[in-house]
Design a protein that fits this description.
Elements lengths: L3 E3 L2 E3 L4 E4 L11 E14 L2 E11 L5 E9 H9 L3 E2 L1
Antiparallel strand pairs: 1-2, 3-4, 3-7, 4-5, 5-6
Length: 86
């Protein structure tokens, strides 16, 4: 697993993302994930998305592995807002 730049944002194992509901596929509410790996970048419905292997932060310090597709534009916005961390 090595880092990859997607939409100008460095995604590497351990990167923490806070993603609002409209900016990821198939889920409800804001989600916090820790990136494990970049699976692929793809286009859907006119938008560019990145599919990540990640660990979702759950209540009380628990976590669950999942695949999550995040809108690339949301990564750029999150980075500008300081919502991407390592």
């Amino acid at each position: 697993m090595s880092g990859q730049v997607v939409g100008g944002v460095q995604l590497e194992p351990g990167t923490v993302l806070v993603v609002p509901e409209p900016d990821y596929l198939y889920g409800l509410g804001t989600v916090t994930v820790v990136v494990k790996d970049v699976v692929r970048v793809f286009e859907q419905s006119g938008s560019e998305w990145v599919e990540l292997s990640a660990r979702q932060a759950l209540a009380y310090g628990a976590g669950a592995d999942r695949i999550i597709s995040v809108r690339v534009g949301a990564l750029q916005q999150a980075a500008r807002a300081g919502q991407v961390s390592r």
